[in-house]
Each structure stands twice: as C-alpha cells, then as structure tokens.
C-alpha cells in the first residue's frame, strides 16, 4: 500500500446538487494523496474540506471530474466494496447511548458479517486488536455515553481500524478535544500509519499540530496542493495560506506567526 | 450482564403467561380454572355459557391484546430508531391518523346517505378494518415517498406530524356533517379496544401478525447500523435510503393492521421501547426487538385486564389504562436510569 497516489483526484468539482442547478463548493481540484502516509487537509472555514471528504467517502457524488481509489474510479466501487476499502471517522457526535465501547468498535466488523450481523470469534479478535492498538482496553465495557469526547473519538478510530480498510478518512477528529487529547489523537494516527501502513487522510484546523505530525500536507485554497512541509514552504504555498488574514509563515521556524 | 438479560426475557415470558391466564380467568362471570382448561382443550367445561364466554370473548381478546401489544411495541421501536428520535411513535407519523381518517370516511360519509353504518353490524366491522388499513397505508405510502426525497430525518418527522394534523382536520370536517349515531360509533372506535375484534377476524388478525412479527427480526442488523447515524451507517455498507424505506414500511404496516382491528391504541408503541432500553440497558436491537415484543404483549394483556375489571366492564377504554399505567412506569425507569448514569462518572 505504499505506491504513490493511493487516492488521485482529477479535475474534481465538489458541491451540492440542488433542484435548480448545483451549488459548487470548489472546482478544479487536482491532487495525489500518497499511500501509507498521514496526510492532513488544511483549509479555512467554508473552503470545502468536509465536502471534499464527503465526496471522497462517496457520501455525495462529485459534480465533475473523477476520484481514483487505488487506480479504480470511486464511482465504480459498490457500497459493500467501499465499506471494506474506506473507513471514516466523523466530527459529529453520534448521540448513541446504551452501547458499550466494545459493541461500537464491533460495528466496524459489519462489512464482513453475514445477514444476522453476528460476530464470530475471529471478528472479536480483530475488535480486541483494534481496541488494543488505540489503547482503550480499560474502556471496553463502559457505556459510550459515559465516555469523554476524546475517549469517544478513540472508540470511533478503533471502529475504523476494526473495519480493516486500507484507507481511513477523518473529518476534524481533533475538533472538540482538549489540547493533550488533540496531541494524543494525532500521535495515535501517526503511529497507526507506521504500524499498519494504512493511508490516513484527515482534515483539521489544528495547524501547528498538523505541521508537526503529518507526513504530508494537503492545502486547500483555490485548488489543492499536496506536499511535505518543506516542499510547500519552498514553493510559497504555506506563506500564501493565511496571507490575506494577516498571519505570516516563517519557513525557518516552520511555524505561523500571529 | 448477558445472563441477567436472559433472565429478564424469562421473567417477561412468565409475565405474559400469568397475565394471559388471568385474562382468561378473570371477568364479570367467574369461571373456575378447571373449566377453562377443559374448554380450551376442546371440552365444554360443563356449561355452554362458559364455553361461549371463553371462546367467543376472552380468548379472542387475549390473543388480540397479545399480538397487538407486541406489534405496536416493535413498530414504535422501529420508528424511534429510524428517526433517531425518542418521541417518535406509531401515532407521530400520522399513520394512526391515516387509519382514523379511513375509518372516519367510511363511518361518517356512509351516514350521509341517511343510513348509519353503525347499524350494519358484522359487515360494518369488516368495512372498518378495510377502511383503517387503507387510510393507514395511504399515509404510509405518502411518508415513504417523501422519505426518498427529503434528506433529514427531522424534516420527515415534521412532515409526518403535519400529515397527522391534516388528517385530523379532515376528520373534524366530516364529523361536522355526520349523523350523531355515526359520530359515536367513530368515537368508540377511536377509544381503542382489544375486544372489538370478533370471532372469525381474530384468526385472520393473529395469523397476519404472527407472520409479520418474526419478519422484523430480519431488520436487526439494519437497525443497529442506523443507530450510528447516516454517515457511519453508509460507510459500513448500509444503503441508507433503502433501509429507511424498508423500516418505515415495516413499521407502518404493523401499525396499520393493529389500528385497523383495535383502533388507535396510544402509548404502548411509544413507551415500551423506552421501558426495554431502560430495563435491559442496551440499544442493541438483537435484544430490543424480542424484548419489546414480549414487554408490549405483557403490558397490553395487563392493560386489557384492568380495563375489564369488575365495575369498569366495557366502560374503561384501553387507551386510558395504557396511559395511566404506562406513563408513570416509563417516567420512573427513565428517571432511575438518568440518576444512575449521573453518579456513574
């Protein structure tokens, strides 16, 4: 899973279909997101990060252009195939109550289950492994409503791991977390990339954290630009990112100055 | 944990048996247990009157309450899951109102011709069932059609509530133009009763429900995925739109049939799933579906028994009992659970 361009975005237009015409959120997107790496999607509010992720997860159809997932057009994947290829972790709180953390992680096995959705011993082994990888063994039997936001986010990440997909998309996984939990979550994701060779693509507003932990950055501003921090500072992308908002980038310190 | 769930199921089963037997034994006429057993096993129990009471009144009522309670409870569970809303229930989506509208049309409009339908007896009963099913199915078809076209569940829920209002408004207009006799027939139907299903129809009703209820088990996996919300459910391989349609139709069919035979029975569909979630402390539908069926059946039997108690005989509508008994119980369960989880932290 380390070949270049696990996800290739070609001249993509994203947005919403409306009865009268479409509302285009972003257009002319081109990018190649490498496999086996942690890539952070950066962009200001309203630029279309969530829409892009939703399009890549096939929750909504693209308005134009194409997405290639491992060389195959995304539109050609069936719902079942996709559920074994892409796992997602969303921002929204699910509002689930009265299920244990382990049961939630168990939902990740769903694409592999038979009609009745009964987990086999093998499935439970995968679930326990996912729980262990994320380090939430102690939470397994806790009801999900008693968990903190950070803990719940880890449960959902474990769910995505139990899904055993080569690709995981996360929509602002650190949004509602306190600072230590943010760092912990990002480190966890980076470790998962290293240990499992998965391709992880996530959107975030935690710029500093992304600069420090991501293998690659994907900057969304009038198009997409993917690269390492160094290459993006060299070509001026990082400098231009916030230039209109009075925030400058210092390439030497690899940090934004307020 | 697992073990105690098994035990709770057994307790519910036992409650059904006890309340079922009580339904057969207790009533205005005292019939000894021995005679009841004899009658049920084909004898005449020593009295033709007793035989008639058991076979023509108490047994049909017991069976009706049993399957109607189970059906309403499961239907409520499906609604609450698909709309991700604890207040959803069979009556909320306007499906009960649709049934009422159907009945109102038949009962009240037929009176315009100068002949009260309520005088037609048996034919009238059958006409009521058909009208109720037609009305409920029509509303359900409308809701299902809308469900494929609107995105949010809340929108759909509000549309359902609005359809209910429209149906009720039309009923109001119909009432205004109707004969008094017909209005009272409609009002009595609207009170809900497990006793109004007569002999031959009981067999049909119970047979239909016995076929439909097990089918809801097929939805277990779908329902569990729906708990996670559309995004996660989709990502885990669920065709959300289709699933929503299937669950709404399943739930609607159950309500339509029960309402057709028993009138709009309030509260059971809304309360029983909450009761089960509280008692079994899980949202897993593998547990909740059978639990709701058992609990709904038991509760319906108990309510029917109370409605039939000496003194109330034929006076107290089931709807009053379901609400009077059930509402405090549910509030107690919810309150207790809330307190527990507050301290759990």
Summary?
The complex is a heterodimer of chains A (258) and B (345). Chain A is of the alpha/beta class and 258 residues long.
Explained architecture:
The complex is a heterodimer of chains A (258) and B (345). Chain A folds into two domains: 1-85 and 172-258, Rossmann fold, CATH 3.40.50.300; 97-164, no CATH class. Chain A contains nine helices and twelve strands. Chain A has helices at residues 49-56, 79-83, 101-107, 121-134, 149-162, 179-196, 207-213, 229-234, 237-241, and strands at residues 7-17, 22-33, 38-42, 64-69, 72-73, 86-89, 167-171, 199-203, 216-220, 224-227, 248-250, 255-257. In chain A, strand 9 (216-220) and strand 10 form a beta hairpin. Chain A is globular and about 55 Å long. With 345 residues, chain B is mostly helical. Chain B has a single domain (2-344), classed as ABC transporter involved in vitamin B12 uptake, BtuC. In chain B, 76% of the residues lie in helices and 0% in strands. The longest helix of chain B is centred in the first third of the chain and has 35 residues, at 48-82. The radius of gyration of chain B is 21 Å and the shape is globular. The two termini of chain B are 20 Å apart. The chains are: A alpha/beta (258), B mainly alpha (345). At the A-B interface, helix 2, strand 6 and helix 3 of A face helix 9 and helix 10 of B.
């Amino acid at each position: 899973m380390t070949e270049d361009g696990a996800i290739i975005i070609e001249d993509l237009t994203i947005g919403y279909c409306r009865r009268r015409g479409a509302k285009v959120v972003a257009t002319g997107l081109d990018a190649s997101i490498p496999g086996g790496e942690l890539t952070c999607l950066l962009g200001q509010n309203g630029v279309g990060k969530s829409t892009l992720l939703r399009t890549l997860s096939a929750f909504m159809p693209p308005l134009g252009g194409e997405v290639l997932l491992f060389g195959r057009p995304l539109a050609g994947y069936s719902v079942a195939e996709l559920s074994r290829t892409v796992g997602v972790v969303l921002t929204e709180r699910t509002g689930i109550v009265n299920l244990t953390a382990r049961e939630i992680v168990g939902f990740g096995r769903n694409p592999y289950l038979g009609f009745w959705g009964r987990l086999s011993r093998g499935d439970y082994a995968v679930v326990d492994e996912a729980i262990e990888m994320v380090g939430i063994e102690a939470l397994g039997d806790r009801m999900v409503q008693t968990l903190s936001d950070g803990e719940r986010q880890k449960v959902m990440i474990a769910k995505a791991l139990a899904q055993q997909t080569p690709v995981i998309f996360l929509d602002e996984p650190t949004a509602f977390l306190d600072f230590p939990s943010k760092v912990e979550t990002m480190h966890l994701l980076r470790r998962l990339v290293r240990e499992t060779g998965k391709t992880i693509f996530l959107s975030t507003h935690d710029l500093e954290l992304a600069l420090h932990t991501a293998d690659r950055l994907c900057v969304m501003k009038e198009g997409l630009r993917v690269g390492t921090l160094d290459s993006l500072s060299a070509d001026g992308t990082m400098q231009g990112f916030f230039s209109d908002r009075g925030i400058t980038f210092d390439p030497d310190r690899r940090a934004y100055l307020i | 944990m697992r073990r105690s769930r098994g035990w709770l199921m057994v307790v519910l089963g036992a409650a059904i048996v006890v309340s079922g037997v009580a339904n057969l034994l207790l009533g205005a006429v005292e019939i000894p247990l021995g005679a009841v057993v004899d009658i049920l096993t084909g004898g005449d129990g020593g009295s033709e009157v007793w035989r008639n009471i058991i076979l023509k009144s108490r047994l049909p009522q017991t069976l009706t309450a049993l399957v109607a309670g189970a059906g309403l409870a499961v239907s409520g569970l499906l609604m609450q899951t698909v709309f991700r809303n604890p207040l959803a229930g069979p009556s909320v989506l306007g499906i009960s109102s649709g049934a009422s509208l159907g009945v109102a049309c038949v009962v009240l409009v037929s009176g315009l011709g100068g002949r009260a339908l309520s005088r037609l007896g048996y034919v009238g009963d059958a006409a009521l069932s058909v009208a109720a099913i037609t009305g409920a199915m029509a509303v359900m078809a409308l809701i299902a059609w809308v469900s494929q076209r609107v995105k949010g569940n809340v929108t759909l829920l509000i549309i359902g509530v609005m359809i209910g209002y429209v149906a009720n408004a039309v009923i109001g207009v119909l009432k205004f133009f109707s004969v008094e006799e017909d209005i009272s027939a409609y009002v009595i139907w609207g009170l809900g009763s497990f006793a109004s299903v007569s002999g031959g129809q009981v067999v049909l009703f119970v047979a239909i429900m016995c076929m439909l209820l097990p089918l809801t088990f097929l939805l277990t996996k779908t329902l569990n995925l729906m708990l996670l919300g559309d995004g996660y459910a989709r990502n885990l391989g669920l065709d959300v739109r289709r699933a929503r349609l299937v669950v709404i139709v399943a739930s609607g069919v159950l309500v339509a049939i029960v309402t057709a035979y028993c009138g709009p029975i309030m509260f059971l569909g809304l309360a029983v799933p909450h009761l089960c979630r509280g008692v079994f402390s899980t949202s897993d539908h593998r547990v909740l579906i059978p639990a709701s069926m058992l609990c709904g059946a038991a509760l319906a039997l108990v309510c029917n028994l109370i409605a039939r108690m000496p003194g109330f005989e034929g006076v107290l509508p089931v709807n009053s009992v379901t609400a009077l008994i059930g509402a405090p119980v549910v509030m107690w369960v919810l309150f207790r659970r809330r307190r527990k989880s507050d301290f759990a932290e």
